[in-house]
Design goal:
Radius of gyration of chain A: 20 Å
Order of helices and strands of chain A: HHEEHHHHHHHH
Structural class of chain A: mainly alpha
Strand order of the largest sheet of chain A: 1-2
Shape of chain A: elongated
Number of helices of chain A: 10
Helix content of chain A: over 70%
Number of strands of chain A: 2
Largest sheet of chain A: 2 strands, antiparallel
Oligomer: homodimer
Strand content of chain A: under 5%
């Protein structure tokens, strides 16, 4: 356990919590208080930590994602989709109106995107659009095609990176990392860029 | 209260909760059980709801943002920055290493960004970079300049929109909407774009 903690960089109490919550498989017991862990445990530990701490997923949502990875068979589009769908949206669903759904359809059409009707991101997007209107900030709505184009170009690169990976488990993990860490990266980068753009405009 | 609920689209029990938590100012009491609310209450209600439900902020963090808006005086760069800094990062801070800090400095340098040392997004970005390395997904790190360029172009447009607004309170609200709802928009759009890019690659 001490060695596993050192190799993964995850504290031992945290590892015990993950084991208890079945987020990480048990090691092979070699004596009553000694277990053997291998490289797969190290990788899983890091992934679980990323899901919970960076992605902000609940333990239950993380367990769903892990289950999807373990149930996978080969390079399967459906599985990669399931993994992506399993990542909970980052906001509570407070509902959206039919006009926002039409907006979402129009955005998807304009980008020429092929997206299933049950992609949960449709509802997330419709909710954000509804709120933009409700709080009277429709100017962000004018910018939405800029956002969509940026998302499209980042997504194409991400998918190329994912498909370049051989191992199916590693592919699923890359999808998770791309979705979850990509959100964290973009969120932080936008905050930095916003401060800089404001500084440029106000004190050139 | 019934009229306020109808005009703002926020249910009465939720409004009472916001009033109790001092997120929305009390109305002017005209009788023991009758209060007058005006347009500023309606706008504040919608903003608070966006902060909590879309932004995922805690009540305490939302109160900090509201306090920054109320303390503002005129079109002030420092205040807009404070509002932006007050928006909690979306991930728990699990620490980052010195190498990641150097990466962040290098990214900021390459973009030519002017960012204060105490911008909390530096730590958020360093944390995401640390995790990318830890989980063995450095290929996302190669893409980080693409992410930074996308963030930069979106931020410039956002700042132009914010500075086009006359009223200082409305400006602060626009910063919040841009940061918080921009995250939600990009997150949802990336998920849609990822599914489409995957579909294009696997089943053209």
């Amino acid at each position: 356990m001490a060695e596993l903690s050192e190799r993964s960089g995850v504290p031992a109490p945290t590892i015990r919590f993950y084991l208890r919550e079945r987020l990480v498989p048990q090691g092979l017991l070699t004596s009553p208080n000694q277990a053997v862990y291998d490289e797969s445990h190290v990788r899983r530990l890091r992934l679980v930590r990323a899901l919970l701490d960076i992605g902000g997923l609940t333990v239950e949502a993380a367990r769903g994602v892990i289950a999807a990875i373990e149930a996978k068979s080969g390079n399967d589009f459906a599985v990669l989709g399931q993994v992506q769908y399993g990542l909970t949206p980052r906001s509570r669903d407070t509902g959206h109106d039919a006009a926002a759904e039409a907006d979402v359809d129009a955005i998807i059409d304009r980008q020429g995107w092929r997206v299933r009707d049950d992609n949960p991101a449709r509802a997330s997007l419709a909710q954000a659009v509804t709120t933009l209107r409700a709080i009277g900030r429709p100017e962000l709505l004018d910018a939405i095609d800029d956002y969509a184009r940026a998302a499209d170009s980042l997504a194409r690169r991400e998918v190329d990176d994912v498909l370049a990976i051989d191992d199916a488990e590693a592919q699923a993990e890359a999808v998770i990392a791309g979705v979850v860490l990509g959100d964290a990266l973009l969120s932080a980068l936008r905050r930095l860029a916003e401060e800089s753009a404001l500084a440029d405009r106000i004190r050139p």
